[in-house]
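Hey everyone, long-time lurker, first post.

I ran two proteins through the pipeline my lab uses and got sequence/structure pairs for each. Pasting them in order. The first:
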Amino acid sequence: VVLGCKGGNPKFRSMALRCRKSHNNRILDDWAFAACSSSRLFGEEFVANGRVVGLSSANVAAIDEMIFEHRPAKRRCLRLDVVPRHPCGQVLALRMPNLTAAPLERVSAVTVELKPKCGLRERRGLPSRFQLLQHSKIRGGKVARLSGYDPVKLLSGKPALVREALIEAFGEPQNTVRVFVDGRVVMAEESTNVRWEGDLA
C-alpha cells in the first residue's frame, strides 16, 4: 500500500510511504531489487529506490485504521502488517518520492502509473502468462472482462507493438494502469465512466 504524505512539514512534502500487507521485513528485498536490478536496467536517474525506515507498531496500526475506509472494497481483506518482524524491533516501510504529486506548490502534475506485469513468454506459440491468467481470473470472478493487454508486446522494443499494448491497457486497466492528477486518481481499475475532459482539464 502506497500512501502520500501531507501536512506542513517540508521534510515530508512530495514524499510517499510504502507499507506491506504481509512480511514487512521483505521491504528490504524490494529495496535491494530496485537498487541492484531496476537501477541497472533503466538507469539510476529513472528509478526512485527510496529509503527503508522503521515505524512503531502503534503508528502503522493508526495509519491502517485511517486509510481502511478509503481503500477499494475488494482490497480490504488484508490489513497493513503491524508486527515487528525485523531484529530492529520496528515495522519496516519504504519512504520514497511521491511521483504523483508536483514537487512545487501551485503546479499541477499528471502521472501515469504502469505496471508491466510478467513479460516472459513461457513457450513459443502460447499466450503470455498474463493473458493465460486472465481466463483464470474471469472464471474466479476476479475481473469482469478479459483484457487484451499483453506485457510481451509492451516489452518487445517494437514501437507498433508497444503502442498496441498501451491502447489495450487503457481500454481495460484492471491493475495495470492508473492515471493521477495532482495525486488524485482519475483513471484506475475501480474507475467507471471517467470523463477525461473534465478530470484532466
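...and the second, right after it:
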Amino acid sequence: LMKSLLMNIQKDKDELRRLDQERLVKKSEYLREETFLCSLENQALKDLLSRAVGVQSSKKEISAAMVHRAETLAMIPGPSHQEEKIHLERCMIKQRNEILASEQEMHEIQQRLRIMTKTEEALNKQLNDNQDALTRMKAATIKIVKVEEEEMQKRIELEAKELEANKGKALLSRRRQIRDLQREQKKL
C-alpha cells in the first residue's frame, strides 16, 4: 500500500513537472511570436519615418523655392505679377501648413517607435527569462530524476538484502523444523 502510494505521488510529481515545462514552452512560443510581430511593426515604423523625413525634406525644398520666387517677384516693381504673387503666397501658406502637419506626423511616428522599441525589449527580456526558467527546470528535473533513481536503486538493494536475509532466516527456520521433526520421529 505504501509503495503504491509513493508511486502515485511520484507519478503526480512527474506529471506536474511535465505540465510546467509544457506551459513554459508554450509561453516561449507565444513570446517569440509577439517579439517577431513587434519587430515587424518597428521596421514598418522606421520605414514610415524614413519616408516622412523624405517627404518633409521635399516639402522644405519646395517651400524654399517658393520663398526664392516670392523674393524674386518682390524685386519686380509694379503690379505686373500681382496675380502670381497672391497665388504664390497662398501656396506658401498651404505648404507651411503641410510642413507643420508632416512634422506632427513624424513626431507621432517617433513616439510610437519609442514605445514599440521598449515593448520589443521587454518581450525579449521576458523571452530570455522564460528560456532561463525552462533551462533551470530541465536541469532540476534531470537532477531530481538522478536522485530518485539513486534512491530507487538503494531501495532495491535494501529490499534485496532483506530478501536475502529473510531467505537465510527462512532456511534456518526450515532446517530447525526438519531437525525437530527428525527428533520426534526417532523418539517414536
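Reply from user beta_strand_b:
Welcome! Quick read of the second one: The mean pLDDT is 87. The longest helix spans residues 82-187.
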